[in-house]
Specification:
Helix content is 70%, strand content 2%. The chain contains eleven helices and two strands, in the order H-H-E-E-H-H-H-H-H-H-H-H-H. It has a two-stranded antiparallel sheet. Helix 2 (10-34) runs antiparallel to helix 3, helix 3 runs antiparallel to helix 6 and helix 7 (131-162) runs antiparallel to helix 10 (207-214).
Amino acid sequence: MTPRGELLAPPRMSATAVRLFVQVCLVIYLWRGLYANTESSAGLDETQAVGYAVLAVLANRIRGLDRQAGRDMVIQHLRFGTIVYWYLRPMKPQRYYALRALGDQLYGFCWVLAGYVLCLAVGVVPPPASPSVAGVFAVSMLLGQLVLYYVMMLVDLLCFWTLRNEAALLILVFAQNLLSGVYAPLWYFPDWFITLSSFLPFQATLSVPLSIYVGRIEVGDAFGQLAVQAVWVVLLALLTRRLWDLAGRRVVSQGG
């Protein structure tokens, strides 16, 4: 539904393309400027740093779809009362939520794939060092997207108890971008910051797969990171499943 709505609004797609192009250009010039007087920093050379930054911008687009304009956010459904239809349909609300998110991510992946191919063609992003690196990166990226899916679901489920969580959403988006390495690779942060982020699920969403791609995490050391990502997926899946059951008890259909 959402990708179809985007296709019927060409100006929104044009704006997305322009914004993505500008963001990629800015991070390229930024990181090349930072490496103008040094060859290596935090274990990354210029090619790795620029490639990481560009991939982070592209990967952030996978969940970059804006549902607010279509009044299709969970907080909006709760405010308007239309959330009740999620519980009156034959399909369980968590399954509908999952299918909706899958559509969003597939649409976002199309943008990422197009941008990746273009950046690869012009030499901005280096290709994977080997087929094994590409395979491990793909698995890690999939696990990272699952972790991100459950993290964003937790924010939406919070709406059932707070009713207004715009501030919490903004804080979480900032924390997600900071602790997952969207703004800058975590390798540049102090050791205490890296240790603290290792106890949170955010770095499992983006920092780990991109670090594998650029070679900051070797393939031999990546399997431990994959195991951590898988553990986060299982823990968050169990937590959100329980929260869906509790949230359903708070929905009341009046007069129907």
